Amino acid sequence: NAGVMQNPRHLVRRRGQEARLRCSPMKGHSHVYWYRQLPEEGLKFMVYLQKENIIDESGMPKERFSAEFPKEGPSILRIQQVVRGDSAAYFCASSGQLNTGELFFGEGSRLTVL
Amino acid sequence: SQQGEEDPQALSIQEGENATMNCSYKTSINNLQWYRQNSGRGLVHLILIRSNEREKHSGRLRVTLDTSKKSSSLLITASRAADTASYFCATALNAGNMLTFGGGTRLMVKP
Fold first, then answer.
1. In angstroms, rounded to a whole number, what is the distance separating the alpha carbons of residues B97 and B93?
2. Residues in chain A closer than 8 A to B2 (CB atoms)
3. pLDDT value at position A28?
4. What angle do CA B11, A104, B16 make, to 5 degrees?
5. Is residue B16 helix, strand or coil?
6. Searching chain B, which residue's CA lies closest to the CA of residue A6?
7. Alpha-carbon distance B59 to B108, whole Å?
8. CA-based, 20 to 30 A from B80: which of A54, A86, B50, B106?
9. Strand intervals (E) in B1-111
10. A90 touches chain B (CB under 8 A)
C-alpha cells in the first residue's frame, strides 16, 4: 500500500515562472492537506481539501497560490509568478476518515527559486 | 503566532541518555500529536494523546499532557544515535484532522 506520493521531489524555477506540485494521497484517503516548511522551521498550514472541494484555505496566500483536488487524479498546488520567498519545502499529507487524528505525510517537494 | 512552541529548540545528548522535549500551546485542543522528521524527509507520526488523557506510552516514548497548563512533554528513553531528528508537536483544535505545528526540537544523539 503506497504512501503519500509527491512529485517532483525537487523543482528549480526562475522568478516569474510557474511551479506545479503534485500529491497523490494514500489509497482510500479523501482528505489532503498542504503545508510549507522553511529551513529550520516548523510546518505552516496552507490548505485543506477534500475531493473537488476546498475546505479551508486560510493559510494560503490570496495571490499567486491555488490548490485543487479533482475527482480524478492528484491534488495540485500551483504557484504562479514565483518569487525567491517561495523557496521552501512543500509537504502534502492525507487522512482517511475524520477523527482518527493522524496525518500521513509525503516526502515533500523542495522548490528553489533562482 | 504558532499554536505550539517546543522547548528546547535544540538538544544534544549521549547515546543511552533520556531526551525530554516540551511543547506549549495556546488554545483548547481536541488532541496533541508528536511527529518526527529526519533531515530532508517527510514527517512520521509518533503518538497521539487526546485531551482527556494524561499520559501515553509507545515503546521508548512517553507523552504527557497537562491541559490546565496547556503543555505536553515527549520523553525518549535510552536514546540511540538513530533517534537523531527533529521532533514536532502538533495540535488539533477539533475532531477534524487539521493540525497546527510548533517550531520543533532538533535532537542530536551522539554515539
1. 9
2. 42
3. 87
4. 30
5. coil
6. B42
7. 20
8. B50
9. 4-7, 10-14, 19-25, 31-37, 43-50, 55-58, 61-66, 71-76, 85-92, 100-101, 105-110
10. no
Grid coordinates 526540537 are at which residue? B105
Gap between the Cα atoms of A84 and A113, Å rounded? 5
The percent of residues above 90 in pLDDT, for chain A, comes to 77
Encode pLDDT of B22-76 as tens digits: 999 998 888 999 999 999 899 999 999 999 999 999 999 999 999 999 999 999 9
Residues A49, A32: contact at Cβ < 8 Å?
yes
Tell me the backbone φ, ψ of residue A71, rounded to 5 degrees.
Answer: -60, -40
Q: How far is CA B50 from CA A78, A92, A99, B100, B103, in A?
A: 35, 24, 11, 15, 21
